[in-house]
């Protein structure tokens, strides 16, 4: 996907200041960051949408049909299959559908996104810009401590969508319009087959907003645009045509539309819409912390737009961010994970402001340094405080872990205290240390006591009774997908729905149904409790 970076050359911005992220320190941080993403990756039980992605991938592989997503034997319409393909490939590479296999596509997508940002930033704004740009996205709190740990669609989809956007920008700058339309539209088609219809407005708004800004809307009438449209139709339409050989497209496309419209103001109450309008920008800045500090401290200056216009990559980021963000700002069903691909576009102006910090009042850089210093001190004290938290009493080596954490954060605090110019890279190293501390404390705790672990224990109890015997879920019922995932993984075959009591089978049924049969295992769930029964032959 990053092939168009191969011939990159470097253009430097003269900021008249020493690098805030020296090259050797950056490469050391990059290696440690990558390592931190893999540490304890398979520790916590699967939860949220993770098991669903695995179930669909398992069923597609079991059926020998990679085109038609199914869940518990029924057609699954809400998402196309590309991410499931990634999970299947990961499972083949790792030898099974373990937790690592589910989460590796997420980690590799994040690392690929960072490489893309660094390469594009280096080419168009200089190496310092590329380093800081990648570091800000890498350190986004919601991504680093939450979504990078989950085998869900969002970071893969963000990589594909951001790749489409930056391909459009890169080839526009090169005046290679065939590649500009061809690659951006092709990647958008992959996005469509990953998450459905949102890929279309992302593509359309990006193209329209940038060409309108550049006063080049006539390119929409160029033959090269037809190449892009053709690539999109060939990929997306080719898949849908192949799918139609197995099942009608009516429900498939209807569910894609429902998924999209249900998140807009059209599908929500006025009160919820107003509340979303007030909170969504704030939630965006919160999820982008600590990188959004650069936005608030260094990009809030009167001449920032004039500065951005001198730097095409930053101007592109602001124009495309604004065009796409508005859609989600006015969509009460939107979640922050839907716009992760927009975060780097907004970060770009924060990086620009940081590089021009020498022109800003000195208090801004001073405040940033004090915030980083205070954060390192707080993390140092928090590391020591782990020894007083009862939830971590089970943790072997807790004292050593907490001391190593305190030493790392304390050392970084000392370095910042000595020299505030170290604040940015010290912050990034602090985030890496925090991620490692999180991996050695919070993730093991979740494997001790969490909803995911409790569902894993239920699956273990069921498996000990059922073994390899026939097992199904009664009549479209709903239990935790973690339970189903763990059963499928251990049994190496998928649980499906059954609409009758099959003699000789074990069946998960609603708890208040079939009182003549003794319950073997209780299966609590918020939609209604189930229980395992055995039907005599």
UniProtKB/TrEMBL annotation:
UniProt superkingdom: Bacteria
GO CC, alphabetical: plasma membrane
Pfam families attached to this UniProt entry: PMT_2
Localisation: Cell membrane
Domain Glycosyltransferase RgtA/B/C/D-like: 79-236
InterPro entries xref list: LipidA_mod_glycosyltrf_83, RgtA/B/C-like
Membrane protein topology class: Multi-pass membrane protein
A GO molecular function held by the record: pentosyltransferase activity
Segments traversing the membrane: 21-39, 100-120, 132-149, 155-172, 184-213, 219-242, 311-331, 337-354, 366-386, 398-417, 424-443
Keyword Transmembrane helix on entry: yes
UniProt keyword terms in alphabetical order: Cell membrane, Glycosyltransferase, Membrane, Transferase, Transmembrane, Transmembrane helix
Primary localisation category: membrane
Keyword Kinase: no
GO biological process: lipopolysaccharide biosynthetic process; response to iron(III) ion
UniProt-recorded name of the protein: Glycosyltransferase RgtA/B/C/D-like domain-containing protein
Source species of the chain: Phaeodactylibacter luteus
């Amino acid at each position: 996907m990053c092939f168009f970076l191969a011939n990159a050359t470097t253009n430097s911005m003269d900021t008249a200041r020493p690098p805030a992220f020296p090259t050797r320190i950056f490469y050391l941080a990059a290696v440690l960051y990558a390592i931190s993403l893999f540490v304890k990756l398979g520790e916590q039980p699967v939860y949220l949408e993770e098991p669903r992605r695995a179930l669909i991938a398992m069923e597609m592989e079991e059926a020998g049909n990679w085109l038609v997503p199914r869940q518990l034997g029924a057609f699954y319409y809400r998402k196309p299959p590309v991410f499931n393909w990634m999970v299947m490939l990961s499972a083949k590479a790792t030898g099974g559908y373990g937790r690592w296999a589910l989460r590796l596509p997420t980690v590799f997508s994040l690392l690929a996104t960072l490489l893309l940002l660094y390469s594009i930033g280096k080419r168009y704004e200089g190496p310092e810009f590329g380093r800081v740009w990648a570091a800000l996205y890498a350190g986004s709190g919601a991504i680093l401590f939450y979504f990078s740990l989950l085998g869900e669609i969002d970071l893969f989809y963000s990589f594909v969508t951001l790749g489409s956007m930056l391909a459009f920008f890169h080839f526009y700058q090169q005046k290679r319009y065939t590649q500009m339309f061809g690659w951006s539209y092709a990647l958008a088609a992959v996005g469509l087959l990953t998450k459905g219809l949102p890929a279309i407005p992302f593509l359309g708004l990006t193209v329209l907003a940038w060409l309108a800004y550049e006063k080049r809307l006539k390119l929409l009438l160029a033959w090269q645009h037809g190449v892009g449209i053709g690539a999109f139709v060939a990929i997306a339409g080719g898949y849908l045509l192949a799918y139609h050989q197995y099942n009608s497209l009516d429900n498939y496309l209807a569910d894609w539309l429902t998924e999209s419209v249900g998140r807009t103001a059209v599908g929500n109450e006025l009160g919820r819409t107003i509340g979303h309008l007030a909170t969504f920008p704030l939630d965006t800045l919160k999820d982008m912390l600590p990188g959004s500090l650069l936005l608030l401290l260094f990009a809030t200056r009167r001449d920032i737009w004039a500065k951005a216009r001198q730097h095409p990559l930053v101007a592109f980021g602001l124009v495309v961010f604004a065009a796409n963000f508005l859609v989600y700002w006015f969509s009460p069903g939107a979640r922050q994970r839907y716009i992760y691909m927009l975060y780097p576009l907004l970060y770009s102006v924060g990086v620009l402001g940081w590089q021009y910090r020498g022109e800003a009042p000195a208090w801004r850089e001073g405040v940033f340094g004090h915030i980083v210093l205070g954060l390192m001190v707080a993390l140092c004290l928090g590391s020591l405080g782990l020894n007083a938290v009862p939830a971590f009493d089970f943790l072997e080596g807790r004292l050593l872990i907490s001391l190593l954490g305190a030493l790392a954060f304390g050392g970084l605090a000392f370095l910042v205290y000595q020299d505030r110019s170290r604040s940015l890279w010290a912050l990034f190293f602090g985030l890496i240390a925090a991620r490692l501390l999180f991996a050695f404390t919070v993730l093991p705790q979740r494997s001790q006591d969490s909803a995911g672990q409790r569902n894993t224990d239920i699956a273990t109890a069921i498996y000990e009774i059922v073994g390899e015997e026939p097992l199904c879920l009664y009549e479209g019922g709903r239990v935790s997908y973690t339970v189903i995932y763990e059963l499928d993984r251990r049994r190496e075959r998928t649980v499906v729905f059954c609409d009758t009591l099959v003699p000789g089978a074990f069946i998960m049924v609603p708890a208040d149904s079939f009182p003549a049969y003794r319950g073997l295992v209780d299966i609590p769930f918020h939609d209604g409790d189930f229980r395992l029964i055995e039907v005599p032959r």
